[in-house]
Prior knowledge:
Number of domains: 1
Strand content: 15-25%
Order of helices and strands: HHEHEHEHEHEEEHEHEHEH
Strand order of the largest sheet: 3-2-1-4-5-8-9-10
Amino acid sequence: xxDRRTFLxxxxxxxxxxxxxxxxxxxxxxxxxxxxxxxxGTGNLGSAMGKLWANNGHPIIYGSRTPDDARVQKVIEExxxxxxxxxxxxxxxxxxxxxxFALRPxxxxxxxxxLGGLDGKVVMDxxxxxxxxxxxxxPSPDVQTSVAEQLQALLPNAKVVKAFNTPSARNIVxxxxxxxxxxxxxxxxxxxxxxxxxxxxxxxxLEPVDTGPLxxxxxxxxxxxxxxxxxxxxxxxxxxxxxxxxxx
Length: 248
């Protein structure tokens, strides 16, 4: 978790997801392309995603424990004129119907009860948990399922989609660092919510892959531990996941 690396092997849903994303684009595309996005957290991942989406015309509403802090104000300035920062509860209650939880999962038990339920909103979860054992990341004993499933239990009327947990923020910002494309696996119960997230992924020049229901988040979080473990094991080498579709 320290460097915000958020790191499958099954890819049968690529074509289906493309159809879903196309349907979502057909539903009031102009409005959706410019819809506001709330980002809870202004660290490496949150600020990187905010700046990228702002470049595509999305108003960004950052949520922060200290929205008036000089560091947060600098993030707003770098994000652009359609960016603002308020408290996390205010960001959750804002006009944004897409919410990114760019936070440490340990914060969730205390924070989520203050957010008002986020009923009907699409909640993007890039969070991972791990513990280090003998220098290698292991599953956290505190999470028996996945962070995404726990978040859905805390927000039963929100539409949680696991997304952006596998790559590093640095590679999302500059995908040209890689020799080819890489994938953003998605998992969630609501197909329309996944299609909307897929659109936001595609805007960044990345490839969304629908891996199935929210239980798949358990394996996506394992992917992050695998790639982070490789980073440590190989003394600094790294990779991203590209889930190449198989011809039918």
